[in-house]
Amino acid sequence: MKFEESGQIGGRHEFLASPNHLDIQHVFTADTKSGTPVEITDGLGNKHVGICLNDVVVADNPNGAVVVFGFVDATKLTEEKTSSADYYPTLIFVENKEED
């Protein structure tokens, strides 16, 4: 694993609607933006569908995390995917609408 200290925090799209979530660590094979739907297989061979937590640039560091359980603000996702329980069985989607 590569570690580098920088003065800035970035590469994270705040799509979570609650701080309570569960993510699975994953080694990516392609660059992936935060908020992108991802299908992964865990170490036990179980398949999960989730959302990439942080931006991942494989050339810099292929390690990342995929949120598989939690509350997601559907208005902040980077790609359109169905929010049905069929595609994301363990994620709960909410829409935070800002008042005028």
Overall description:
This protein is an all-beta fold and 100 residues long. The chain has one domain: Virus Head Decoration Protein, Chain: A. Helices cover 0% and strands 38% of the residues. Strands 1, 2, 3, 4 and 5 form a 5-stranded mixed beta sheet that branches. Strand 2 and strand 3 form a beta hairpin. It is globular and about 40 Å long. The model has no long low-confidence stretch (mean pLDDT 79).
CATH fold label: Virus Head Decoration Protein, Chain: A
Tally of strands? 5
Largest sheet: 5 strands, mixed
- SSE string: EEEEE
Number of helices: 0
N-to-C CA distance: 45 Å
CATH architecture: Beta Barrel
Instruction: Average the pLDDT over all residues and give the rounded result.
Output: 79
Large-scale geometry: globular
Low-confidence stretches: none
Question: What's the CATH class label?
Answer: Mainly Beta
State Rg. Answer: 14 Å
Judged by helices, strands and strand pairing, the structural class is: mainly beta
Number of individual domains? 1
Oligomer: single chain
Strand content: 35-45%
Helix percent reads under 10%
Quick tags:
mainly beta, 0% helix, 100 residues, 5-stranded mixed β-sheet, 5 strands, Virus Head Decoration Protein, Chain: A
